[in-house]
Each structure stands twice: as structure tokens, then as C-alpha cells.
Write a structure and sequence with these properties.
The complex is a heterotrimer of chains A (262), B (494) and C (187). With 262 residues, chain A is mostly helical. Chain A has one domain. Chain A has a two-stranded antiparallel ribbon with strand order 1-2. In chain A, helix 4 crosses helix 8. The longest helix of chain A has 34 residues. By secondary structure, chain B is α+β, with helices and mostly antiparallel strands. Chain B has three domains: 125 residues, no CATH class; 131 residues, no CATH class; 162 residues, no CATH class. In chain B, helix 10 packs antiparallel against helix 14 and helix 10 packs across helix 15. Chain C has one domain. In chain C, a hairpin with a 2-residue loop joins strand 1 and strand 2. Chain C is of the alpha/beta class and 187 residues long. Chain C is globular and about 70 Å long. The N and C termini of chain C lie far apart (70 Å). The chains are: A mainly alpha (262), B alpha+beta (494), C alpha/beta (187). At the A-C interface, helix 9 of A face loops of C.
């Protein structure tokens, strides 16, 4: 479940990306399959640890900024950024100083909640799906497909590489790490399908936060509408987990090296 | 006069009756309940003796029949220094008689309701168990009422409580160790466990912690549990408290340790998992459907009671777009004439609700119901009509308060968490609420109860570890004990 | 220390304290185009403490562009306009497909307006919004109820923003009014 939340991270906020077209979900799948090579490479080759550390640092920073931008533009538009930063830093610092098994326990519970919400929203919007939005009538253009796959490197490949290093550090089994990666990317694919099937690729690509917009169309009679508030919980949890894991990876490498030197 | 019994250790009685009587009179010179009954046995060799006891602590009939009468009427043929042993074996009709010479031990016996027999010429005294202090009697605990199941509850006498526990667990595996705690109170603390089930390391650690406690008096179990808790400032308890012998027996069968303090009916059990806050004894005495339903409702009510006021405040102040339009208009109309901010209104209502709740508990029974009607109907109704508070706020706070009453074990936690979430949502809306929820979840997951994770252990998560958590599976599927046990197998081959 | 804690607790009462501006809930938007001028109407519901109920009003503004017209509407009141509860956009006959695209683009960009807002066509949007509501507090609600009733009869009309956004020439239902209520002229 930690892997699931890590993969979701900040990617769930803005997928599908701006240049998406009808082949975007195929591009995502291809990107994921190629990333598995990276996954196994990082697990087996020790030297890859060093570039992945930089990737972890970049991932943490990117997630941090994406999430804060999202909150200041979408949720708390009138609040000063400094307060938003403080409220985000509090749980983040709290997480970074927690033990490994406590983070894993937390991920299990919150991951189940987030997964449940994603599946619930998918079925809640099911009645408005237009399946024509994903029909591919002719054989896909290879160049187009390639450009769509490359687009997802940041969202798919980089987190998988960082996760592989984390799994190696904590001694997790390859099988469980792989399952987590698979399920996490499956959830990401579900969120992409959610917005594409509802809005079509053109509109989804133009929207700033397509998944949030998709959920805001869910209504239950006149009682419940605009349930996108619940999606903010998923974003918050996955962003905090992603950054905390990246920080833990870097912390582990720094402190382990220092002990070796001493 | 010395303050504690320790000060009388290694001081022995002299064997000269008058001198010894004088010593005891000096010790109890300010105690009007201390009594001395002098006896002169004329039959046989004859001897002088004195019975020392505290009035109100002994059963005077038993004292007369078992001690005084035999001494006066029986033919004593032994005049040696071993007269005490002779009297103990051949004369007294009492069950428990101890031969003591140490002053502190004799004093301890007298203070605890025993009668001390001093014989002239003998350097040993006899302490006879003739306890007869009055107790409250076995009754159903007020705070743990159930519809179905046993109704007896512990009372203040430690030995009686141990007897009740023995009746539930009729096995020689039940071990009961005793410690004396409180330098002035000398309170007896009993540690009970099933020897083949518990973690011996945990027991050893517990005993070390208990011995380190330095306090002058222990009047309740909480005096001890707070001092040995790994999280003394935590909102959530790390040890369970109960007044029911069936609950203690069930927890001992799950490999826990019970701490019983003489003088209070509250018994603590450790380790204490977080899910136990949502368990009720009735879950196990009714069908598993009712048990599971009750369990799920308690979890739901916990979430509802701490989050509902905060969610209401967050949505109405900072995120009105999430409310259905008709409901939003209703709320805006009803709140339009109220002079206070919604946060102030909600906090005020929560505090009033808590005041009414506390008052209801402490009021005499004949005034309590009337006061509830005054508080609930009159104050609430009048305040809404006078537009001091709005009806939606009153409903939200009342709903949250009633949901909180489903969880008596989490009263303090619910109250404080409600206020914390309220302040987070007042300043930061849904964002603050979710941030707080995430931190709370992380905090709960990292709770530790005497070396064991209070929520779950990921490497031991399987169906059996979850069988008694959010739900309660039927008894035939309850095959194992909780994960911290030495012996996990509850049924079949052990 | 105690004083600091008391002060911090008192700040809780300050949130939303004082005269919080009465928000206007916009329930319907009407857009007309005539004589090279956009006429934008916002139908809003506001709480009236004197009658202890709600009051409906229609704010109208004109401008050469859509944005200018909307700004004119917003200038008509000092109170904030809450667009998140707007369920219907009525466009007049003078709005061409190209201009409709502009309106849809505005609704998409506006953060508060959801993508499930419904579009409909009418002869004169401003006139439609100014008519007296029949069964609820505003015309916007009446129209939303009409669409909900259609949905319950499994005759859901695909006129929500995300359903028509990518269409080159979307067909919108036309609404007319009579003494009894609203009806679809053609669809």
C-alpha cells in the first residue's frame, strides 16, 4: 500500500497531462512496462543508487511544489502561502521522523481508504462515460505513441525507480514492491480513464486538474454533489507519503554512509 | 511515631506481655479504634495473653469463637517457649494463623483486619485472620451495563475480587503475585496472569516498572497505570480499565496481564490495543451480527463525533460550494440573525454540552432527569428562538455529542480532538481538517502499549489478526489469540 | 502563559466574526447578444433577514465582450457572487455557435463553475430569468428540476458543459414558458 500511495503521489492531481491525445492511455501503459526494466535494474545494480538519490530529491521537491500550488490555486485561494506551507510541513515533518513500520502501517490503512475512494468515484461516474472517447479506429502512429509514452516518464518511471531503491533499503520483498507498483499504476490508469471517458482527451488535456473536475460531476440526487473535496484527502496523503519516503531514502543513505566512514 | 511499616522492620517483640502491650499502645496512641483484650487462661498450666485488634476491621463473633473462647476454656498443657506454636496447632479454631515476631509484620496484620495474639513468655506472636470489615457487596458496574451476560462487578476488597476471578478461571495456570505499593498506604497490588500464555519478558519489565514507582499512597489503579504508561500524555489509553470479572478473565485468556489494586474495583489490563476502545463485552455475548453491527457503529460514531462539527464549520465558512444549494440556503437563512461567528457558536455549544453531561453525572438521581430536561429543551429551544444560536449548529453539536457518548472509553480523547479539529478547520478549512486527520491516523498507528504496537503489526496481518477488529467473527472462527501472545492457538491442538 | 493561551482561544471566535458579507448565490446565468453587445444576467438568491427568508434578484450588465459584460454585472453589487451553485446557462437566439464556444470557454475557466452546468437555448435569456419562478425560489432551480425530472424518466438530455464542449455545433434544448410552467419547444 505504501507503494500504491507513493505512485499516486502528486501525479493523480494532474493526469492526463497537457499534451494528451487519444493514445495517451496506451502511452501510459507502454511507459509503465518500460519502467519495469528500470525497476529491476535499480534493484540489481548498486551503482544506480546514486542517480536515483538525485531523482528522489527532485521527486520530493516536485511533489511539494505541485501540491502546494494545487492547494493555493484550488482550495485556499485567499489564504497566504506561508500558512498553507506550515500546515503541510507539520504532518510532513511528523512523518519524516517516524519509524519505518509505523509509516507502513499508516500506508496500509490510508491506502485502503484512498483505493476505495478511487474505485468508488470511478463507478459513481460510470453512468456518464462515453466509451467512444477511447476507441482507436486506425492503427496508432508509432511516433505519436512514443511521444505519449515519453510524456509519462516523470509520473511513472521516476517514482518506480525511487520505489525500487526504497524497497532495497528496507529489505522489502521484490514481489510485494512489484505488486504495489502495479496496483498504484493501475489506480493512476483508472484516474486517467475517469477523466478521458467523461470529458474526452481534448477537454481533459485542457483542464488544470482533470480528476478533480471529473469527481465534481458526481451527484447523488439533490443531496450530495461536488464530492471533489474527498479527493483532496487522497492528494494530501499520497503527497505526504511520497515526500516522506524520498526524505527517508536520502536520510538512510546519508546516515548509513557516515557510520561506514566512522 | 514512625510513618511507615518499614520503620518497624527488624524490631522484635520481647516476650514480656506488659512491655509488648505498652509498645503497641504507644504506636496506636492516637487511634481510638485500637483495642486490647487481656486473657488469663486458668485451666491447665495457665498463662496470660492479650488479643490486639482494630474495632471495625475484625469479625467480633469469629474472634470470640475462634480465638478468645478456646483460650479461656481449653486446657493448656504446654508452658514452654513454644507455647505460641502449641496454641496455633491445638487451640485456635481459625483458618489462617501465622506465627510472627517482627513488629512490622504484626502491625501489618492488625492494620489489615487480623487479630494479634501476644502470649506472656513467648517471643512469637500469632496473627489470626478474622477479617470482618464491611464491603459494598457485589453489584453491576454503573459504567459497564449490558443487556445480555453476567452482571457482577468487582468491589473494593481485593481478596474478594480475586475470588471472583478464580471462579471464572478455574485453572492452576492462573498466577497471582502480590506487591505492596505506597509507602504510607501499604496498598496491596495483585498481578494476575495465565502463566503459559503471557510474554515473560513483558511481565518482568512490568514488575521492574512497578517496583520503581515511589509514591506515598495508591488509592486507585490509575495511580499506577499512569506512572508506567509509555505515553503518559497521550489522549488515548494504553491500558484497559474494567470493573467486570468476566472481562478480566477474557483478557487474561488472550494473554494479557491484569493489575488489581486493593481498595478499588477498577482493574487494569495490559497490553491494550486501540481496537479495544471500540469493543464492548456484549459483542461476545450476542450473535456475531449484533456484535459486528455494534462495532462498526462505534467506529463510525468516533469519526462522526470528532469530525462532524469541524466539517460543518469548514464547509459553511470556507467551502460553501460543497453544500447542496437548498441546504446552504436553509443554513444561511437560519444563521443570518445570529450575532456570533459559526466557530464561536460551535465551540460554545460543545462546552455547554460537556457541562450538561458532567452535571448529569454528578447530580443526585432525583434532580438529574429534571436538569436534563431544563438543559436540553429549555436552554436549547430558548436559545434558538432568541437567535443566540442557530438550529443547524445545535443539531450538529448534539449529533456529535450523542455519537461521542457511544464511546465511554474515549471521552477525553473525543472532547479534545473535537476542539483541535474545529480549530484546524476554522483557520484552514478542509485542508486543515485533512492535515489533522492524517496526523491523527499516524499518531494512532504509532501508539505503543507496553512494547506492543497498539494498532496492528503489518508482518502479522492476516485474517486471524483482523477477526476481532472492525467486526467480530463467529466463535468457531476465533482460532488464535492476539499477536503478542506466546501461545497463539486458542482451539484444537496447543 | 495563561494569558497567551486565553488570547489564542479567543482568536477562534474571530474567524468569520463581525459582519460577514452576505453572499449572493447565483443559480442561473443568461447571455444574450444583440446589436453588437453582450447582455449578461445573473439570477441570484440572497437571504433576507427582514422577511426571514430568501429573496431573488436578477442582475444585468452589458458589454462589448463577454468578460466586460460579466464585470458590469459584478459591479452592480458589493457582495460576493457565489457561482459554485449555478446549474444553468441560458443563451439567447442571438448567440452563434462561435459565441457559444466563448461562453463555454469562460465557464470552463471559471474555477467555481462545475463542468456539469447545463446549457439551454431560449428566445431571450434575460426575459427568461426575469419571469417569476413557478415551483421554487428561483428560475434556475425550476430549470434544474426540469432536467432532473427528464433524467428520472430516462430521457436525460446531453447538454452539460463537458458533454457539449468538444462538439463543433452542439444542439441545445430550447425552453419556452407558458402559464403552467416551462416546456421544451424542440430537442
Amino acid at each position: 500500500m505504501l507503494a500504491v500511495l507513493f505512485v499516486l503521489g502528486e501525479s493523480i492531481i494532474n493526469l492526463p497531462l497537457k499534451n494528451a491525445n487519444k493514445l495517451t492511455f496506451l502511452g501510459f501503459i507502454i511507459s509503465f512496462l518500460l519502467s519495469l526494466l528500470v525497476f529491476y535494474a535499480v534493484l540489481r545494480v548498486d551503482l544506480l543508487k546514486y542517480p536515483v538519490l538525485f531523482v528522489a530529491l527532485y521527486t520530493a521537491g516536485n511533489t511539494f511544489i505541485t501540491f502546494l500550488n494545487f492547494i493555493s490555486k484550488n482550495l485556499l485561494t485567499k489564504t497566504q502561502n506561508i500558512f498553507i506551507l506550515i500546515i503541510f510541513l507539520l504532518p510532513l515533518l511528523y512523518f519524516c521522523f517516524k519509524k519505518q513500520n509505523e509509516i507502513l502501517n499508516f500506508s496500509l490503512i490510508s491506502g485502503l481508504l484512498c483505493g476505495g475512494l478511487i474505485i468508488f468515484f470511478f463507478f459513481a461516474t460510470f453512468k456518464d462515460f462515453n466509451f467512444e472517447n477511447i476507441y482507436i479506429y486506425s492503427f496508432p502512429n508509432i511516433k505519436n505513441l512514443f511521444s505519449q509514452s515519453v510524456m509519462y516518464i516523470k509520473s511513472v518511471t521516476l517514482p518506480i525507480a525511487v520505489l525500487a531503491l526504497y524497497a532495497k533499503q528496507i529489505g522489502a520483498s521484490k514481489k510485494s514492491a512489484f505488486c504495489g507498483v502495479l496496483v498504484g499504476n493501475l489506480f493512476l490508469l483508472i484516474t486517467i480513464f475517469n477523466s478521458i471517458l467523461l470529458f474526452g482527451t481534448t477537454l481533459s488535456a485542457k483542464l488544470l486538474y482533470p480528476y478533480g473536475s471529473a469527481i465534481s460531476t458526481v451527484t447523488f440526487g439533490n443531496l450530495f454533489s461536488r464530492l471533489d473535496g474527498f479527493s483532496y484527502f487522497i492528494y494530501f496523503v499520497s503527497a505526504v507519503i511520497k515526500i516522506a519516503v524520498c526524505v527517508n531514502i536520502i536520510k538512510y543513505e546519508i546516515f548509513t554512509n557516515k557510520k561506514d566512514q566512522v | 511515631m514512625a510513618a511507615t511499616l518499614k520503620d518497624y522492620e527488624n524490631i522484635f517483640i520481647t516476650g514480656k506481655l506488659e512491655k509488648d502491650i505498652e509498645t503497641f499502645q504507644q504506636i496506636f496512641k492516637n487511634d481510638v479504634t485500637f483495642r486490647i483484650k487481656r486473657i488469663t487462661a486458668r485451666k491447665g498450666v495457665g498463662f496470660n495473653a492479650a488479643v490486639l485488634f482494630i474495632d471495625g476491621m475484625v469479625n467480633t463473633e469469629q474472634l470470640h469463637d475462634a480465638v478468645i473462647s478456646p483460650l479461656v476454656e481449653m486446657d493448656v498443657q504446654n508452658d514452654s517457649e513454644n507455647i505460641a506454636e502449641y496454641i496455633e496447632r491445638q487451640l485456635l479454631f481459625a483458618g489462617t494463623v501465622k506465627i510472627q515476631s517482627d513488629l512490622s509484620q504484626i502491625l501489618e496484620g492488625i492494620i489489615y483486619g487480623e487479630a494479634a495474639l501476644l502470649v506472656d513468655g513467648s517471643k512469637n506472636a500469632l496473627t489470626v485472620d478474622v477479617k470482618g470489615f464491611k464491603t459494598r457487596g457485589i453489584s453491576e458496574p454503573e459504567n459497564e451495563r449490558i443487556l445480555q451476560g453476567p452482571r457482577e462487578g468487582f468491589e473494593e476488597a481485593g481478596l474478594l475480587n480475586l475470588a471472583m476471578l478464580r471462579r471464572k478461571l478455574q485453572t492452576p495456570d492462573l498466577s497471582i503475585e502480590m506487591l505492596k505499593m505506597g509507602s504510607r498506604s501499604g496498598t496491596r497490588v495483585f498481578i494476575c496472569y495465565l502463566d503459559t500464555l503471557i510474554n515473560q519478558k513483558a511481565l518482568k519489565k512490568l514488575k521492574e516498572k512497578l517496583q520503581k514507582i515511589d509514591i506515598d499512597g495508591v488509592l486507585d489503579t490509575n495511580y499506577i497505570t499512569e506512572q508506567i504508561s509509555p505515553h503518559p500524555f497521550s489522549l488515548f489509553k494504553t491500558s484497559g480499565l474494567t470493573e467486570r470479572p468476566d472481562v478480566v478473565a477474557a483478557r487474561l485468556l488472550e494473554g494479557r496481564i491484569a493489575i488489581m489494586v486493593d481498595g478499588t474495583p477498577m482493574v487494569a489490563t495490559i497490553p491494550y490495543l486501540f481496537s479495544e476502545n471500540f469493543q464492548s463485552d456484549e459483542d461476545y455475548y450476542q450473535t456475531f451480527w449484533m456484535g459486528t453491527l455494534g462495532r462498526i457503529m462505534r467506529y463510525f460514531c468516533f469519526g462522526l463525533s470528532i469530525i462532524l462539527p469541524a466539517l460543518f464549520v469548514a464547509i459553511t465558512t470556507l467551502h460553501p460550494e460543497y453544500l447542496p444549494t437548498s441546504f446552504l440556503i436553509t443554513v444561511m437563512t437560519l444563521r443570518s440573525a445570529v450575532p456570533f461567528s459559526i466557530v464561536g457558536e460551535t465551540v460554545g455549544m460543545i462546552l455547554i454540552f460537556e457541562i450538561l453531561k458532567e452535571t448529569g453525572v454528578r447530580m443526585p438521581q432525583n434532580i438529574g432527569p429534571a436538569l436534563s430536561i431544563v438543559g436540553g429543551l429549555v436552554v436549547g429551544q430558548a436559545a434558538v428562538e432568541a437567535k443566540i444560536i442557530s438550529a443547524p449548529t445545535l443539531i450538529i453539536v448534539a449529533l456529535s455529542g450523542i455519537a461521542g457518548l457511544m464511546l465511554p472509553k474515549l471521552r477525553a480523547a473525543v472532547f479534545f480532538l473535537r476542539l483541535i479539529f474545529l480549530s484546524l478547520s476554522a483557520f484552514f478549512g478542509l485542508y486543515g481538517l485533512f492535515g489533522g486527520a492524517i496526523m491523527l491516523l499516524m499518531y494512532i498507528v504509532s501508539l505503543n502499549s507496553y512494547g506492543e504496537n497498539a494498532v496492528l503489526s503489518l508482518n502479522r496481518t492476516n485474517f486471524q489478526s483482523l477477526k476481532d477488529s472492525l467486526w467480530r467473527v463467529p466463535w468457531q472462527y476465533m482460532k488464535t489469540r492476539p499477536f503478542f501472545n506466546k501461545n497463539l492457538i486458542r482451539r484444537g491442538k496447543k | 502563559m495563561k494569558k497567551i493561551i486565553v488570547m489564542l482561544m479567543l482568536t477562534l471566535f474571530l474567524c468569520g466574526c463581525g459582519d460577514k458579507p452576505q453572499e449572493y448565490l447565483v443559480t442561473a446565468i443568461g447571455v444574450d447578444y444583440e446589436k453588437a453587445l453582450y447582455t449578461v444576467s445573473f439570477e441570484a438568491v440572497v437571504v433576507n433577514t427582514e422577511i426571514n427568508g430568501q429573496e431573488r434578484l436578477v442582475l444585468t450588465g452589458q458589454g462589448r465582450t463577454l468578460i466586460k459584460a460579466i464585470d458590469e454585472v459584478k459591479k452592480q453589487t458589493t457582495q460576493p457572487l457565489l457561482l459554485s451553485h449555478c446549474g444553468v446557462v441560458a443563451v439567447g437566439n442571438g448567440i452563434s455557435q462561435q459565441k457559444l464556444g466563448g461562453i463555454m470557454r469562460y465557464c470552463k475557466e471559471e474555477k467555481d463553475i462545475t463542468l456539469s452546468i447545463r446549457f439551454l437555448k431560449t428566445e431571450n435569456a434575460a426575459e427568461l430569468l426575469k419571469t417569476e419562478p413557478i415551483s421554487s425560489v428561483s428560475v434556475g432551480y425550476d430549470l434544474m428540476s426540469l432536467f432532473d425530472a427528464q433524467k428520472q424518466q430516462n430521457k436525460d438530455i446531453k447538454n452539460r458543459l463537458f458533454e457539449i464542449y468538444e462538439q463543433l455545433s452542439p444542439t441545445l434544448p430550447t425552453i419556452k414558458t407558458n402559464e403552467t410552467g416551462y416546456y421544451f419547444e424542440k430537442y
